[in-house]
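Standup, Tuesday
Yesterday: got the pipeline producing structure tokens again.
Today: sanity-check two examples.
Blockers: none.

Example 1:
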Amino acid sequence: MTGEGRPDGGAAGQGGDGSADGGGPSGERMGHLAEEVRQIAAEARIGARRAQRRSKLWNATCICLGFPAAVLAGISGAAGLASPGARVPAAILALLSAGFSAGSTFLRADARQMANLRRRYAWQNLETRARLILAHEAYEGVEELHTALVALLEMRAAIPSSALVLAEAVPPPLPVPAAPTPLGP
């Protein structure tokens, strides 16, 4: 037993549809479909890693801009209140603090971090589902594997790209309520 005929590399000749894997057209179709599932799992693993790295980057950006802004605001307030001669340095520190705060608000690092975390979880969910399909549906038959592959492709299409990360963070507009119906004549 070489392990080359089955979708997971298991023993050949034990196809879910009763035919010998790798020998007939059904076995070839199973092999091709299983390979597509493997490619989706690999793509999902890479996507999850990328989203994780981006999430870490935006978390670091949020901390690097937010923490100095808070510290500088506190120091400038204390310096400004301590003595009349320290008002100019306090004003400079306040301007620096405002700049850090504005940069953090402009970049929306916290929203980008959360969006990338959601993307990472979506990619991990897709990878897990692909692995389960390889473990189960790959032995059920060609039609079951095809149906599962179509579902995987739909899941992959639902994962937002990095260009759409912030678009999902914006809440959708509220629908305009319909005009009330008159109660009487």
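Example 2:
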Amino acid sequence: MNDMQEPVIDIAAVLVPMLTVWAVLAVYAIAAYVLSAVFLSKIFAKTGAAAWPAWVPVYNSWRMLELGGQPGWLALLVLVPVGNIVAAVFLVIAAYRIGLGFGKSGAWAVLYFFVPLVWGALVAYGNTAPWRPTSATASGV
């Protein structure tokens, strides 16, 4: 006779914490998306472009790349493995050029790289010079 019992795993004890973590992460992701869309729509409006593309995934990056003087199709690289790194580099370059268009220094590209939501808030609602596209960004508008 075997007196050893098999351990009983309580499924709820495993699933509830895991689902709680995923729910919190989903709320943060949705909040970050909404904030970035609000900031981008304000930035687009300040440049004279339509504000609605800020709410469309991938197309908002397309428009941002175009405002920064880059070809918009580079935004599609986020769908390709390793291509997303290339797209991120070009988005930082676009943020640098957009910052220049608003009279900001090149250090703002570093801010965009590390905390893009703060960059978006400061460019969208902070004190900026009127939009003056540089020669590189003029073709994108």
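Quick observation on example 2: The mean pLDDT is 90. The chain has six helices and no strands.
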